[in-house]
Specification:
This protein is mostly helical and 126 residues long. It has one domain. It contains five helices and no strands. Helix 1 runs antiparallel to helix 2, helix 1 packs antiparallel against helix 4 and helix 3 packs antiparallel against helix 4. The longest helix has 27 residues. Pfam families: TMEM220 (PF15071). This is Transmembrane 220 family protein. Keywords: Membrane, Transmembrane, Transmembrane helix.
């Protein structure tokens, strides 16, 4: 599969992720984040890659993810793991924190791929 196809699939996937965030309690940050990943996917695939922006956004995602690890650990310690698939509960914020951590890790993985796939090949460096 060519890089353009993979980048196009990533862009489409993150557009869908962006769209479903509009009903989230805090859509601004998620629409912005997923929209930026979708945009960078298009830039990397069809125009000029922006490696520094990609790495910076990936770093931001990973730092943000670190702040959510306590919530994930609380979910691991809970008795009912299936509540992750249910509705958000005010008395269990760790459910949303764990979901958000997953979203940040998916975005980070996509950004890592974009960065990795756009670095110059050894033949191009010489």
């Amino acid at each position: 599969m060519t890089k353009k196809v993979i980048h196009g699939i990533l862009a489409a996937l993150f557009v869908v992720f962006t769209y479903v965030q509009f009903n989230d309690p805090d859509p601004e940050r998620w629409v912005t984040l997923y929209g930026m990943v979708a945009g960078l996917s298009l830039l990397h695939g069809f125009w000029k890659p922006l490696p520094y922006v990609t790495v910076a956004l990936m770093g931001l995602c990973l730092i943000w993810a670190l702040t959510l690890i306590p919530g994930m650990l609380e979910w691991f310690a809970s008795d009912d793991k299936s509540e992750m698939l249910g509705h958000m509960m005010d008395d269990k914020p760790y459910i949303e924190q764990t979901r958000e951590l997953g979203g940040l890790l998916i975005a980070s993985a996509a950004l890592f791929y974009l960065w990795w796939s756009s670095r110059p090949k050894k033949e191009e460096q010489a």
